[in-house]
Write a structure and sequence with these properties.
heterodimer, A: 473 residues, eleven-stranded mixed β-sheet, 18 helices, B: 71 residues, 45% helix
């Protein structure tokens, strides 16, 4: 147990688990190292709303005693993780990044929290987020601005920006985020980590503060695909308390890794996936696809119609559903919302019912087309988002030709596709821009085929080192 | 359906009243401008979807139905 604390925080979950099992490191050492890192960097990064220092150490000491006594719970035992602050934690404040819920102390865990605890994971804190998850910047008026560890003047995206930044900054080994329109994948991409949005219904949403019920999901954010698979194994599966939970058997995700990608058919919709993206993003994702081709995958050009409608459909669903959830608070406590979220909630009250229903019908159209296409391909690969991390406070972005566009109208250009169709998608680091900012690619799979996403992402990470790079903090 | 709609500030006020949502008048112009962009995109989608009458909306179903117990 002589490994320097400065190295412990660089361990992946898989590496840490192996060392804990062999008793080469103790959970206490690992948690102490993470808490030291939080102490050292979080005043600059701003990932955490609540740090559970003493509680985490107490659990770590208990884990150490269990391991010493021969009780090994599995690969998450003793591993420090963070939870986005819209995921209920019994006895620990859960704010959803809001003033409205500033005093909410749940008397029960979320199902995902309970499952992680049962697997032995140690919760080191609750992570900052865009208020009520309704936005993509994590510029939170109540709990501070989370900053991108790769460039502290840039945003970490969102809404799970605290989760993305904390994992990148080595403030925890893994985290849970939530994803409605891209809120796991966007911060995974711009912070240079890996994050998966599960198939709708694969992971319980019970006791997670909702944004838009028909698109909400919970998923892991880690440095590697293998680590995501380890966390996913613990949280996936049927939950009778979540009416949207699916009763589909959960495979052994780790056993599926390492089988290579020879013969995998990668679908691309070139015009849409590569037509309106920053040049560095285009080059990085194209390069990643070429790497997978060299490893035995084949690329299939696919035609899917009406893709451009996805942004409007997503904005419509993501406007109307939150506005119905927030209807009472918006009338009684409008001043307690940040201005951006208040504006979006007010706008969500103004759509016509036909707009909302046509958006939901569009989802059927889009899903049908993707499922048809999956007869000829195994996965799709696109950029995760069309641009790299923007300066904090910016609401516009330049993608090409010097033309400014509203960020809200383009940030979900690609992440919206799985969100609307209920398909699983993982974001994987695949390069850096000329300014040194991380770029992510999105791999989309068939319903409940997360195992394939982990396998392809893991195979890619075996061939590249983008995921091993660390920000200089 | 027109291809473009501009939501006037007065019209926005009427919509807010219909929704029984009290919003200070100072916010109406900003909301009208933002809603014009959003509703234009939503109307585009309406035009796309209206002829496709065979499509039903995505909805969420309970698994299992209440009272059925765990499958």
């Amino acid at each position: 147990m002589a490994r320097a604390a400065s190295r412990l925080i660089d361990l992946s979950i898989a590496e840490a688990a192996s060392m804990i099992r062999r008793r080469e490191i103790s959970p206490v050492e690992l948690v102490e190292a993470v808490l030291d890192q939080i102490q050292a960097v979080d005043s600059r990064v701003g990932s955490f709303i609540t740090v559970l220092g003493e509680q985490a150490l107490e659990v770590a000491r208990a884990a150490e005693r269990m391991i010493t006594a021969g009780y090994y719970l599995g690969p998450l035992q003793g591993v420090p993780i963070g939870l986005k602050d819209n995921i209920y934690t019994q006895g620990v404040r859960t704010t959803a990044g809001s003033k409205i819920l500033a005093d909410l102390i749940p008397d029960e865990d979320a199902t995902v929290t309970a499952r992680l605890r049962q697997a032995g994971a140690i919760i080191v804190g609750k992570l900052n987020m865009h208020e009520f998850a309704w936005g993509g910047t994590t510029d939170n008026p109540h709990y501070g601005t989370t900053r991108n560890p790769w460039d502290l003047s840039r945003f970490p995206a969102g809404s799970s920006g605290g989760s993305g930044a904390a994992v990148a900054a080595r403030e925890c080994l893994g985290a849970l985020g939530t994803d409605t329109g891209g809120s796991i994948r966007l911060p995974a991409a711009v912070n240079g980590i890996t994050g998966i949005r599960p198939t709708q219904g694969r992971v319980s949403n019970y006791n997670v503060v909702p944004l838009a019920w028909t698109m909400d999901t919970v998923g892991p954010m880690c440095r590697t695909a293998r680590d995501c698979a380890l966390m996913f194994q613990a949280i996936a599966g049927r939950d009778p308390r979540d009416p949207g939970s699916a009763n589909v058997p959960v495979p052994d995700y780790i056993a599926e890794l390492g089988h290579g990608i020879s013969g995998e058919r990668i679908g691309v919709v070139s015009d849409y996936f590569f037509g309106h993206v920053q040049p560095d993003v285009r080059a990085a994702v194209r390069g990643a696809i070429e790497t997978l081709e060299r490893a035995g995958a084949t690329v299939v050009e696919v035609a899917i119609e009406h893709l451009e409608g996805n942004i409007s459909a997503q904005l419509t669903v993501e406007s109307c559903e939150p506005s119905s959830y927030h209807q009472l608070w918006l009338r009684e406590r409008p001043q307690d919302y940040g201005d951006d979220v208040r504006t979006l909630l007010e706008l969500g009250e103004l759509y016509l019912a036909t707009h909302y229903i046509q958006a939901q019908r569009y989802r059927t159209l889009l899903r049908r087309q993707f499922l048809d296409a999956f007869r000829d391909v195994d996965i799709f690969i696109s950029p995760t988002l069309p641009f790299v991390a923007t300066p904090i406070g910016e609401t516009k972005v330049v993608i090409e030709d010097g033309r400014e566009e509203m960020m809200l109208m383009v940030i979900m250009q690609f992440t919206g596709l799985p969100s609307l169709t209920g398909l699983p998608a993982i974001s994987v680091p695949c390069g850096f821009s000329r300014e040194g900012l991380p770029i992510g690619m999105q791999i989309i799979g068939r319903p409940f085929d997360e195992a394939r996403l982990f396998r392809v992402a893991d195979a890619y990470q075996a061939l590249t080192d983008w995921h091993r790079r660390a920000p200089d903090l | 359906m027109d291809s473009e709609v501009t939501v006037p500030v007065a019209g926005l006020g009427q919509l807010l009243r219909a929704a029984q949502l009290p919003v200070p008048a100072g916010r109406h112009e900003m909301l009208a401008s933002r809603f014009t962009t959003l509703v234009d995109a939503a109307n585009d989608l309406n035009r796309k979807m209206a002829p496709m009458r065979e499509l039903t909306p995505i909805t969420q179903f309970a698994h299992p139905d209440p009272g059925q117990g765990e499958a």
